[in-house]
Every structure is written in structure tokens, then in C-alpha cells.
Design the sequence.
């Protein structure tokens, strides 16, 4: 399991920040409609961010994360994976998400990501766009780096880098096609992602000549980027700063 339904990202809101938010219903290239959440900064700094959620799909954690990005000047679109099977309505904590996770396809996620990228570039065609994802979304964020979106960078929290996905390759199997820098953020106490898998991912990226930053936080569990995890506040703060530095270095 990734983030709890009532979890919040471990980022302090910026008091007084001017942000415009809206729920969207987008249409992918295959004609399927899916839900998304758009947070826009009053004074954008240039880059845009596509947020790929964990297995629950789009819920409050990712809407709040989109707002946190907008508060620092980065317009963000958080997408939902399940438009093809669950429609576009909002869902509660009882939503049975796993059948819908198993129904996702790499092509569907690529199509949905491309649509979100197009939203961010609608008025700024040359805008640099990044992806960030968590768990299931972490792996998929890295996979978008080789999917032709023209990304400036792909960020993943505790994704599985060396395990094949439900219907597609592991990120480590696509390194030859990666088009942008990679940032990987892992928990050292994450039993789902062993240290040797992280090392294998790092080595594969190095061998392919991909610019990357791979960080493991000692003692941090899976899903550590959670406001309620006081004991991991230093890891959370460092991860948030690394994301901002990664964006600044590649925008």
C-alpha cells in the first residue's frame, strides 16, 4: 500500500500564496475522458509538473501536492489513471482501486500523461515540463522519460525501478530510450524496494549515460513523504529541497 487516503504531503503550505485550482475532465488521444486536478500559480516561474499518483489514483494527497507546487510558482496537473474503467467522479476511502490498477496499460498512462503535458503547454508551447510520481506513479514517472513527451526531468518516489510493471517493462529496461535526467528518492527501510534494486537502477542509468540523482534516506519506510511522519521530517524536507533543486537545474 502507498499513501493512506487521509495522508497529506510533507510540505508546509505557504501562507498567503495566490493559487488558482480547478477540477478538470480531460480527453486522451484514444477518446477516453479522465479526471485531473489543475493548480496554477499567480506568478509562474516557467516549468510545469505532471503528478502521477499511487495505486489509489487521484485523491486529496495529490491535489494538495499540486497546490504546493503552484505555491512555489510551478503550475501542476495531477492525473487520475482510471477514467477508462471507473469514470471521472471523485471517490472515497472505500474505493476498490486494485482492479482498476490491474486494468491500466502503459499506452493509456502515456496517453493521459501526454494530455496533461498539453494542458501545461497550452499557452506556453516551449514550457519545460517534469513528472513526479509515487510508488506505482514513481515507476510510471520514470517510464514517461522514454515515452516521447519531451520532458525536462522525471522524478520518482519509491517506485519499483527493476520490476516489470503490470503490462510493461521495468524502468531499468528502458534506460536506452530515456530522454531526460532522473531523480529517484527511496526509503532505506522500504521492504518493497531492496537496496540492491536501487543500486541496479543507478548502475543501469550510469551505463546508459543518463544524468541522474539517486537518494536513499536511511531508516525511512515506503511512503515516508507524509506530513504525519514526524520522525522522518528531515528526509521529507531534504526530498522537497532536492526536487526544487532538480527542477532549477533542468528548467
Sequence:
Amino acid at each position: 500500500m502507498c499513501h493512506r487516503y487521509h495522508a497529506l504531503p510533507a510540505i508546509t503550505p505557504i501562507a498567503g500564496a495566490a493559487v488558482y485550482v480547478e477540477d478538470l475532465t480531460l480527453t486522451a488521444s484514444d477518446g477516453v475522458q479522465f479526471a485531473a486536478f489543475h493548480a496554477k500559480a499567480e506568478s509562474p516561474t516557467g516549468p510545469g509538473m505532471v503528478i502521477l499518483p499511487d495505486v489509489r489514483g487521484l485523491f486529496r494527497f495529490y491535489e494538495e501536492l499540486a497546490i504546493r507546487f503552484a505555491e512555489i510558482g510551478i503550475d501542476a496537473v495531477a492525473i487520475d489513471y482510471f477514467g477508462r474503467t471507473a469514470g471521472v467522479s471523485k471517490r472515497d476511502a472505500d474505493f476498490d482501486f486494485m482492479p482498476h490498477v490491474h486494468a491500466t496499460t502503459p499506452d493509456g498512462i502515456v496517453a493521459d500523461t501526454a494530455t496533461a503535458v498539453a494542458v501545461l503547454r497550452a499557452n506556453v508551447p516551449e514550457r519545460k515540463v517534469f513528472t513526479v510520481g509515487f510508488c506505482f506513479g514513481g515507476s510510471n514517472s520514470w517510464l514517461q522519460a522514454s515515452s516521447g513527451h519531451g520532458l525536462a526531468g522525471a522524478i520518482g518516489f519509491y517506485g519499483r525501478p527493476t520490476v516489470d510493471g503490470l503490462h510493461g517493462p521495468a524502468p531499468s529496461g528502458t534506460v536506452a530510450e530515456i530522454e531526460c535526467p532522473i531523480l529517484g528518492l527511496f526509503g532505506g527501510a522500504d521492504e518493497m524496494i531492496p537496496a540492491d534494486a536501487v543500486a541496479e537502477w543507478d548502475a543501469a542509468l550510469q551505463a546508459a549515460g543518463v544524468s541522474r540523482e539517486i537518494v536513499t534516506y536511511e531508516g525511512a519506510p515506503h511512503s515516508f513523504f507524509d506530513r504525519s511522519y514526524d520522525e522522518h521530517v528531515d528526509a521529507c524536507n531534504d526530498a522537497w529541497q532536492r526536487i526544487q533543486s532538480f527542477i532549477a537545474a533542468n528548467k
